[in-house]
Amino acid sequence: MTATDRTAGAAGTEPILRLEDLGVTFSSETGEVPAVRGVGLHVRPGETLALVGESGSGKSTVALAAIGLLPDNARATGRAVLDGTEVVGAPENELASLRGRTASMVFQEPATALDPLTRIGAQIAEVIRNHRRVPARQAEALAVDLLRRVGIPEPERRVRAFPFELSGGQRQRVVIAMAIANDPALLIADEPTTALDVTVQAEILDLLRKLAVDTGTGVLLVTHNMGVVADFADRVAVMLHGEIVETGPVEEVLLRPRHEYTKRLLAAVPRLAVAPTGTGGDTAAGPVGDVAEPAAPRPKYGVRARTAKPAEGGAAAAEPVVDLRDVSVVFGRRLAAVRALDGVSLHVSPGETVGLVGESGSGKSTAARVALGLLRPTSGSVTLFGADLRRSRPRARRALRAGIGVVLQDPVASLDARMTVQECVAEPLRVHRRGMSGRERQERVAELLERVRLPRAFARRAPRELSGGQRQRVSLARALALAPKLLVADEPTSALDVSVQEAVLEVITELQEELGFACLFVSHDLAVVQHFAERVVVMRAGRVEEQGGTMETLLHPGTDYTRRLLAAVPVPDPVLQRERRTARLAAGAAGVDA
Amino acid sequence: MSAVLRPGRLPGGSGPTDGADAATGTGVSALRLAVRRFTRNRLAVVGLAVVVLFFLFCFVGPLLYSTDQTHTALTQANLGPGGAHLLGTDAVGHDELGRLMYGGKVSLVVGLAAGILATVIGTLWGATAGYAGGWVDAVMMRVVDAGIAIPALFILLVISAISTPGVWGLIVILGLVSWLVPSRLVRAETLTLKNRDYVHTLRAIGGTHSRAIGRHILPNSVSTIVVAATFQVADAILLVAYVSYLGLGLQPPRTDWGGMLSAGLTATYSGRWWLIVPPGLAVILVVCAFNAIGDGLRDAFDVRGRG
Amino acid sequence: MNTFLYLTRRVLQAIAVILIVTVATFCLLHALPGGPARGILGPQATAQQIAQFNHQQSLDKPLPVQYAAYLGRLLHGDLGTSYTLNEPVSQLIRERLPKTLVLTVLSAVVGLVLAIPLGMWQAVRRNKPIDYVITTLSFVAYSTPVYFLGLMLVLVFSHILPWFPAQAPQGDSLAQVFADPAALVLPVVAGAASVVAVFSRYMRGATLENLSEDYVRTARAGGSRRGAILRRHVFRNSLTPVVAMLGYYVPVLFGGALVVEQLFNYPGMGLLFWTAAQSSDYPVLLGCVLVISVATVVGTLLADVVQRFIDPRVKEGRA
Questions:
Q1: What is the mean pLDDT of chain B?
Q2: Predicted local distance difference test score (pLDDT) of residue C44
């Protein structure tokens, strides 16, 4: 049964959620901010409506308004009718009796969503007893049942656990259990999987879908991820600057978008090229040439996009700019020891881009820090520009470091808020080129800003006045100040919207073509890496799972783990995604501990 | 009572829940925003006014209302308020109002100096411990723990048994007794700042430790240090008020508010309220005012912290 | 396993701190004019007595050796002898400490019982007029020298309104102390005032922080009412940092006890210390400092351990 079928079937029934001309205004220190304007949408029983948009679009605000959880400094106008009850302006008592029973909500951050000092069973029981007269013992039994339904193993034992004893995915399952405890007619999920690893994300989405289908619950799914939309939703509404610009069935909107913004948004999403289902990464039998190979898709970014160079590291003859050999990093001592890296070997040759991918805890960020010389390995060697860091003297080490440029993930924390853009970008010059005059520095900074497509006038601004994407570009300008031979970028675009990410990656590509630096690109986003890097290193639990040419490795993965990882990434094509999902569920064992 | 604790507070209401990627710049600088937040805190503004008034009172006052605070005038002793002496006279004939100004100068100056001294020592100690980390940090913090474990009043009393310091000695002693709390605060701040991305980036490209501390950590600690200093001044003025009571006081005819209080204690039951109520109120008002200012500054700068 | 490691580390830290305190007192002892001999024997001692004492106590040996001897004496419970009262200091302290503990514990308990609900209430009524009033009162209570507050209390509630006696219960045994509860009221109020001021502010801050935490939003989304959320979730989470601070507040409590006991003539350790200071009775002075410091370190350790059991997340100790 396709999504269109389900929507058609549900048409004609009264929607459980109907928003009409909804507006929300926030009063902040700097004035009134209209976050949402004239929003109208509806969700019917049994259908999933995805509310998509980038940050600042107002999608989360709409979700909160629907359930009456707007913060105190927000004012809602218009109508929001939940199962016949008007939410806007309703008294708190009425709203409290709706929440958790008629409609419930799942939030983004599982790490902080639960009371750290209360056992999870008690927290689930609380939701049950809020709406039903049930004795405590029975509520706990019901909680155990719910835990089982959401896929937590050993629920009888786990029901007495504290939140910190569970992983992020498990905690999200607990939140979902709380949300479905009283069989709500509407489930609102605000970026429920954004904070989770991609394999966990797939499991949680499977769970949500199964629950919705089993009980006919309507779902309002708020997300920025088009792949998740394609995987889960029946209908889509696209938001921009607080307004809805396009609505429709998922296949229509994702495959045949009409509004300019939707088209742009979809075009900016890096698409993971996948081997068609059926040929997916079989290592063993079958010569590759047998089945019709998909043409290796044209990469969006990276040197390969421009020069169509062969994917393999043909330039391997030259000495690598950074070389990790059998590196291990152990934190803590004896009983509390944690092996962050275990015998990792990887290298980056001059001019090439290497993508370092993995889920959380894989050690990819640790490896990057070792490459940067910020972390001393417990064993193994690190060679930077041909010199062993351990054997070099501090002065020589510092001189070597001039050849590195660094861009880190958090746009807010990467620039010192107390310095102007000029001072931030000029800092490497001050560290290594003492001889430069103030004027020369200014010139160089202006030049660098232009290179990253920022106006010269930005030099006088403070980081606070810039957007996230602009800040990352300033970081990039700073990284290039000394014409480095190696750029180490640790999740540089993960905190950015997809359209902003596109701009930043394009800039990096251009610069790499011009200046020819090598790049070590750490990311959890396989699609981005596929488009950007020539070689890829897949990491898992501190070890290198496999490495090789990007297209080779990602289209024909050598290990089971990589295969599973790729299968879990949702693509923004609903038809294709459905096929992949079926194949994945058939191939994998039932997801257990997320 | 020397303060070890002050509650932390959290910043005000939240904005739109979708993390805005859009630029927030409305041309309002961080400093102006802080000033705006401070002025909206009524208690803090009142506190500032009170402090300014008291400074004027103590330093400009005697120019307008001059009295003799050095020589005794036993014929004028123990007079009630009224007539030539607006607040009466004390046991040796000094004019009480004039004495309030005279004593205030000492209380304010010693308090200010001791508070600032304590903050400076504490900042250096805490920043070093926080930045160095490892066993250096552990040892330095154990010393701080030991210092906190010994109540300040007890130490002061012991010192009073040994010697009687002058004004400068008093400033040094009070400073040495109070630097412990700011050191913990600055250490915590340093630890946080040390782990900021921009510091990591600086170190990765070869920046030196001194650059990291001088260009990034210290400037970003300024708000914490300023807030700590304000609270330290409040505590120091309060401590000065205890000092005479404990016998570490200044020799007459020099005095401060604390000295006036302890000298006047015996007079309480004989109904000579004008000897203790004015200095008591003065201490309470000024210490309160500095606390309110510190509280307001902390909220204005968005500083979290205990103490 | 983790608990064991944590406890060991904390205990070792505590021992280190206590050692540093003994070094401090040892230095003070030697910083006294005339040296420790005069400190022990008193200002009346003759030069000959001092020389004899010095030799007996091996004060002519190098400092580290003396420190070791000093430490040895401490471990045997020998804190010296008071020369004004001619009794071993340890005995004096043993007699007086329980009474001081009664006073400080009562002040702390009364203070906390008032402060915690007050702070929470303030957080809920944030920025309303009542919040400002209580905040102002807290500032005033915090900024008032304890002896001044005590004096005012006596003036109002003892002289003008003859409700409570102006002197705390006299008598040596604890039974006698408790026999006259009315006399304990004013001293306890004087001691509790700053506790209420500080901890209500503290609780207010912690509650405000917790009210904006995600788990509150989750609970609301599940239909829980604000009052229930406050009681069931916010309260316990706010309590954790407050408990942590209690340990560090112990020296402040003792400092307050010093003044309160003197003011109300309460025969506890504070008054002992006070009188010793008047007569330069150094053995008593230093002995008391040592005991109180050890009490503080133990108090902090206990607070940390309690916190660990309340909050199961606290696995790592703090440096």
A1: 81
A2: 67
Inspect the interface and report whether the beta carbons of C222 and A99 lie closer than 8 Å: yes
Residue C37 binned pLDDT confidence (cut-offs 50, 70, 90): low
Which residues of chain C are within 8 Å of residue A104 when distances are taken between CB atoms? 221-222
Of A104, A112, A116, the CB nearest to C222: A104
Contacting residues of B for A399, CB less than 8 Å apart: 206
Question: What residue ranges of chain A have pLDDT lower than 70?
Answer: 1-12, 276-317, 589-594
CB contact B210 to A (< 8 Å): no
> B23: which chain A residues are within 8 Å (Cβ-Cβ)?
465-467, 470
CB contact under 8 A, B2 and C159: no
Query: B305 contacts in C (CB within 8 Å)?
Result: none
Residue A48, beta-bridge partner list? A219
Do residues A205 and A227 lie in contact, with contact meaning Cβ atoms separated by under 8 Å? no
pLDDT of residue C313: 65
Give tens-digit pLDDT for A553-582: 888 888 989 988 988 899 998 998 988 888
Q: Report the chain B residue with the minimal C-alpha distance to residue A405.
A: B205
Predicted confidence at residue B34, as pLDDT, reads 84
Helix, strand, coil share (%) of chain C residues, nearest 5: 80, 0, 20
pLDDT of amino acid A406: 93
Output the DSSP codes for B92-133.
T--BHHHHHHHHHHHHHHHHHHHHHHHHHHHHHHHHHHHHH-
Residue of A494, A497, A548, A499 whose CA lies nearest to A525:
A494
Binary contact (C139, B137; C-beta < 8 A): no
Query: Best interface-test mutation with C: which of B1, B46, B136 has the largest number of C CBs within 10 A?
Result: B1
Strands A74-82 and A48-52: unpaired
pLDDT number for residue B306: 36
pLDDT digits (tens, 9 = 90+) for C259-298: 999 888 888 888 888 888 888 777 888 888 888 888 888 8
Could you report the predicted ipTM of this complex, rounded to two decimals?
0.82
The sheet with strand A379-384 has its strands ordered as: A338-348, A322-331, A379-384, A387-388
Task: Report the alpha-carbon distance of residue A366 to residue A346 in Å, rounded.
Answer: 13
CA-CA distances (angstroms) from residue C311 to C228, C252, C316?
20, 25, 12
CB of C155 less than 8 A from some CB of B: yes
How far apart CA A294 and CA A274 sit, in angstroms, is: 9
Q: Which residues of B touch C138 (CB under 8 A)?
A: none
Spatial CB neighbours of A282, under 8 Å, sequence gap ≥ 6: none
β-strands A322-331, A338-348 pairing: antiparallel
Print the SS3 string covering B231-294.
Answer: HHHHHHHHHHHHHHHCCCCCCCCCCCHHHHHHHHHCCHHHCCHHHCHHHHHHHHHHHHHHHHHH
- Hey, are the CB atoms on C147 and B137 less than 8 Å from each other? no
Task: Return the residue in C139, C282, C298 with the most chain B beta carbons within 10 A, the one to mutate for interface testing.
Answer: C139
Gap between the Cα atoms of A325 and A284, Å rounded: 29
Q: Residues of chain B whose pLDDT is less than 50?
A: 1-27, 305-307
pLDDT in tens, B125-177: 999 999 998 889 999 998 998 888 888 888 888 887 777 788 888 899 999 99
Distance of CA C170 to the CA centre of its chain: 22
Q: For residues A119 and A162, what is the distance between their CA atoms, to the nearest angstrom?
A: 5
Across the interface, do B158 and C277 touch by the CB < 8 Å criterion? Answer: yes
C278 touches B at CB < 8 Å: yes
Mean pLDDT of chain A: 86
Q: What is the DSSP letter of B82?
A: B
End-to-end CA distance of chain B: 13
CB burial class (10 A; 0-12, 13-18, 19+) of residue A357? buried
